[in-house]
Every structure is written in C-alpha cells, then in structure tokens.
C-alpha cells in the first residue's frame, strides 16, 4: 500500500501491514525491515527431505544475477525464495515453486551450497501429492503415465522415424544379438517433427562411421528425469524400474544417448535402482571420430553453440560439442557471452518444458527468447544445439522475437549430416 514518507520521517518509524518501515537518517533512504520472521515455516520447509539446504542461505545475493528466471524478469533466485519463506509465504502455495528450471547456475556460485536441484524437486513432490500442480504440467504427467511419453503419442509409433529415415537402424528385439551401442533415442527425438529430423541425421552419421548400434523401438519409454525434477518421483521410479529391466534384456557395451536429461538420469539416478550402465552422449562419442567421416560439402556457416544445462553444468561436457562443430568443413564457431559454465538456460529443464503457459504469467520474456537475442547479437547464421528440448523452443523464440531470416536452429547431428552431402 502507498506510504506517506513524511509520516515516517516525523515518527522515525511506522508499521504498515505488520511490517515496520524506518527512516535511515545517515543514508537518507527508506529501509524495509521485517520485524517478525516466520521461523516455524522455515523449519517446516527445511525439514522436508532434500530441502534442508534452503536454510543455509546467508543472503549474500550471488545467486540472483546468474539466475536465468530473474534475467527474464521473473524476480527469482534462491535468496528471494529464502526471503519469501522467511516472511511467511508457503512455497507449496506460491508460483515460485514452479519457476526454477534446475539449471544449476545458482549452485555454481553459492558459497553455502544452497542446492535448488534438490530443494525444488523435494518441495514439488509434496505439492504433487497434494494435487497442487499447474494444469499443463499435469497433462504431461498424465500423457507419460498413459502413453510412455509426454507428447501423448502411441507407443506403436515410437520407431516410425527409423522406418522413414532410409537408414539401417536395427531394433534390438528383432536382431537378437549383442551390439556395441544401445541407442536410447528418447521421446522428443522419436515423436516431435524436429526431433525426428535430428534422429534421422544421427542415424546417417552412425552408419557412415560403421557403428554397431541398435534401438529399443516400441520397448523404449521416457527416462522421466525431468518429471522427477518436477516432483513426480513416483512416475520416475516406475519408469526407471521399467527401463532398467528392458536394458538388462540385451547385451551392449554402452548406452548411446541423444538427450542430456536421459544422460543425467542413467548416470546419476538409475544406479540407485540397480541400473549401472556405461552411458555416453552422442557428441562425446562422435567428437574423436569426426576425422573418419567422408565430408563432401563445405557449409560456410557462422555457428554459435548453446550449452545444454544438463550436458554442461550438470555433467561437465563442454568440449565435445565444440569439437564436433569445429570439425565440420566451413563452420566458424562464435561463442556467446554466456557460454560453457556460465551458459544461459533454454527454460526447458526441471519441468519447464511443459510450463510455458504458466511461465508467461510470471516472466517478461521466455528464457529461450532471451537466449535467441544473445545468439543473434553474435552475428551467427546458425544456433547449434544438442538437446532435443532446444530445437523447438529456440525455433519458436526466433519467430516470437522477430528474427526469422536472421538465425536458424539446427541440431549438431543435422549439421554433420548436411556436410556429408
């Protein structure tokens, strides 16, 4: 509510809505002082398993300027979440619960290791159990439970992209033999139109290399790591157990992955459920083999690369995508200002892939739009990606920011396949 500043100056302080406002005579500005902290709410919040580190915040503020949601006008960061709880706002009933993309930028700079990647899933799990879930996210939960993927597509169509590719793509249940690479394709690369484009390109690259690989086809279901981070731990556990059982049916040396989110699940979460596998992202696999490819076309593109949060900060892979790009004839790689460990977030992680409508009410611009503007400023022709969430997000952002004709979005696999001629 509006406050009469002269009243504060005359009385030294005034209480407004339970908050004491004081005049600081030395600095000559008004200071907002919270006189009554909600200690019991902070204790209740941090008593939830996984959310303990929220109470470690000592309000240094380093998290706020690196938070992508704050940069997009969402007024966010662990400090601000901490202050809300401190002032008596229950996160289980607050929009802030769903804003975090679990990108790990804040954790990178936090001197107290306040870990939003643990805090938010823990609190969201409570909200999910209480039925307090944004509708569009609930739709993705329901689709995945019923169809095995968040897009709600038929399980029978999961390998249709392979048939359409014109490439030799073996299905494990049909060939009944060991392979070097078990390719876990993922949901968006199996069903989404642009994801299928990247899958077809990657199949061509693998065949050119003479790789021995096979896919699960209709036996494959979503890895569900993003749903775990969005609070649906039960769904994650059910699918983890299913996927591990399917993997154990076959003999292979490595699980070859398109999606950094699946990489994170199989590497860090599945071992807790008995799934111990050697996993590799496709760029990590291809990087040392790029010299073996029979390139026949020079692309002459200026390319800038977006580091996926779950490949880079979460799993430490920054070099392989760049090595792949630099090995493509004619490609000039131009870095954005925020890259590698400091890379911005596309907004798709932690359930954000299915919260665009929700986020539109809480930020000034989509995170993907902020990132596209940065990519355009580099003067690049192409924004290269290697996470299946990003192609559609960035292509939409190119349109919504009015940058059609200035920037195209391509998966690294698509660029490699194009240079093959």
Task: Note down, in words, how this protein is organized.
- By secondary structure, this protein is α/β, with parallel strands linked by helices.
- The chain has three domains: 39-129, no CATH class; 135-287, Rossmann fold; 292-419, AF0625-like (Rossmann fold, 3-Layer(aba) Sandwich).
- It is 43% helix and 12% strand.
- It contains 22 helices and twelve strands.
- The chain has helices spanning 5-11, 39-46, 63-66, 68-74, 78-86, 96-99, 105-109, 116-129, 135-147, 160-165, 172-175, 187-191, 193-209, 225-229, 233-247, 260-269, 282-286, 319-326, 356-360, 367-377, 390-400, 412-419; strands at residues 13-16, 19-24, 29-33, 170-171, 179-184, 213-215, 252-257, 279-281, 302-305, 332-333, 382-385, 408-411.
- The strands form three sheets. It has a five-stranded parallel sheet with strand order 4-6-5-7-8. Strands 10-9-11-12 form a four-stranded parallel sheet, sandwiched between helices. Strands 1-2-3 form a three-stranded antiparallel sheet, with helices on one face.
- Helix 13 (193-209) crosses helix 22 (412-419) and helix 20 crosses helix 21.
- The radius of gyration is 24 Å and the shape is globular.
- The chain starts with a helix and ends with a helix.
Tally of contiguous helical segments: 22
Quaternary: single chain
What value does the average pLDDT take? 91
Characterize the biggest β-sheet: 5 strands, parallel
**Ends distance:** 65 Å
Based on the model shown, name its key terms:
Rossmann fold, about 425 residues, five-stranded parallel β-sheet, four-stranded parallel β-sheet, 3 domains, 22 helices, about 45% helix, alpha/beta, 12 strands, single chain, disordered N terminus
């Amino acid at each position: 509510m509006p406050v009469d500043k002269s009243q504060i100056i005359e009385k030294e302080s005034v209480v407004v809505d339970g908050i004491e406002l004081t005049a600081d005579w030395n600095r000559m500005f008004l200071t907002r002082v919270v006189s009554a902290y909600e200690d019991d709410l902070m204790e209740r919040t941090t008593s939830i398993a996984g959310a303990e580190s929220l109470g470690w915040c000592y309000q240094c503020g380093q998290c706020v300027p690196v938070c992508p949601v704050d940069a997009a006008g969402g007024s966010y960061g662990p400090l601000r979440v901490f202050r809300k709880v401190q002032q008596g706002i229950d996160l289980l009933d607050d929009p802030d619960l769903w804003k975090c993309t679990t990108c790990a930028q804040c954790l990178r700079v936090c001197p107290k290791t306040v870990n939003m990647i643990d805090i938010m899933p823990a609190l969201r799990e409570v909200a999910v159990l209480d039925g307090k879930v944004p509708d569009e996210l609930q739709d993705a939960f329901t689709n995945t439970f019923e169809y095995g993927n968040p897009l709600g597509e038929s399980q029978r169509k999961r390998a249709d992209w392979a048939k359409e590719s014109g490439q030799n793509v073996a299905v494990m249940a049909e060939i009944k033999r060991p392979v070097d690479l078990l390719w876990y394709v993922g949901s968006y690369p199996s069903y989404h139109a642009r994801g299928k484009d990247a899958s077809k390109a990657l199949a061509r690259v693998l065949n050119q290399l003479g790789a021995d690989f096979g896919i699960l086809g209709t036996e494959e279901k979503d890895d569900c790591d993003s749903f775990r981070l969005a609070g649906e731990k039960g769904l994650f556990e059910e699918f983890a157990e299913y996927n591990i059982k399917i993997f154990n049916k076959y003999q292979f040396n490595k699980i070859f992955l398109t999606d950094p989110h699946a990489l994170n699940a199989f590497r860090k979460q599945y071992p807790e459920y008995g799934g111990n596998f050697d996993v590799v992202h496709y760029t990590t696999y291809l990087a040392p083999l790029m010299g073996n490819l029979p390139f026949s076309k020079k692309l002459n593109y200026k390319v800038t690369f977006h580091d996926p949060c779950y490949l880079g900060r979460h799993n430490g892979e920054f070099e392989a995508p760049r090595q792949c790009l630099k090995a493509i004839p004619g490609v000039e790689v131009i870095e954005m200002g925020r890259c590698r460990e400091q890379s911005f977030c596309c907004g798709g992680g932690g359930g954000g892939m299915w919260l665009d409508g929700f986020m539109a009410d809480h930020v000034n611009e989509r995170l993907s739009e902020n990132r596209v503007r940065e990519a355009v400023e580099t003067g690049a022709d192409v924004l290269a990606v290697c996470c299946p969430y990003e192609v559609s997000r960035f292509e939409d952002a190119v349109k919504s920011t009015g940058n059609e004709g200035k920037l195209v979005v391509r998966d690294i696999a698509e660029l490699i396949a194009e240079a093959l001629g």
